[in-house]
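We were asked to recover a plausible sequence for a given structure. The inputs and outputs are reproduced exactly as logged, with field labels preserved.

PROBLEM: sequence recovery
POSITIONS: 182
GIVEN STRUCTURE:
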């Protein structure tokens, strides 16, 4: 799998219908399809670029209300890994925290950040319990974290809620960030 497709529907029922239509329209793997806060429905599909593009285009052209959609080619393996589990930052590393208005935009921004600089994507929180928003945490050298946060900002534009870089986070803050939701 080299491409990730994300569709964030504003309706649960419409999202379920779209997920079904997307996997029927193209040779994609349904990686996740579930509710998120605010009554939205998040769909992740994977496969080759053409198939994922076809599936996401179907959703975009469906007439259904979407909060966001993205096709991410050459998706960072860090994004795929962090969707499964968090990676604690090393003591002494800087942290970047980027908060996004939607889940789809947050995943796209996390991918851009991970690709732009030598950072570790430590955590990616998608929608549940935070009113349909998302945020991610990156760690590394201060300059690299700043560069990665800048990449996320450029992808997000109006979807950005807030982005911060913490040069020397306390151990207590690191432990709290990584252990939340486990």
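RECOVERED SEQUENCE:
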């Amino acid at each position: 799998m080299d491409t990730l497709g994300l569709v964030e529907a504003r309706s649960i029922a419409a999202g379920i219908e779209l997920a079904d239509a997307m996997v029927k329209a193209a040779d994609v793997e349904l990686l996740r399809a579930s509710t998120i806060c605010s009554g939205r429905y998040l769909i992740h599909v994977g496969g080759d670029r053409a198939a994922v593009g076809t599936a996401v285009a179907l959703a975009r052209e469906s007439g259904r209300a979407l909060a966001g959609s993205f096709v991410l080619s050459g998706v960072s393996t860090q994004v795929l890994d962090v969707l499964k589990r968090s990676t604690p930052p090393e003591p002494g590393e800087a942290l970047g925290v980027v908060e996004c208005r939607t889940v789809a935009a947050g995943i796209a921004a996390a991918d851009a950040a991970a690709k732009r600089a030598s950072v570790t994507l430590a955590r990616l929180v998608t929608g549940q319990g935070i009113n349909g928003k998302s945020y991610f945490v990156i760690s590394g050298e201060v300059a690299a974290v700043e560069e990665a946060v800048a990449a996320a900002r450029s992808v997000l534009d109006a979807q950005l809620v807030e982005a911060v870089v913490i040069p020397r986070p306390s151990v207590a803050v690191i432990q709290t960030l990584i252990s939340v939701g486990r």
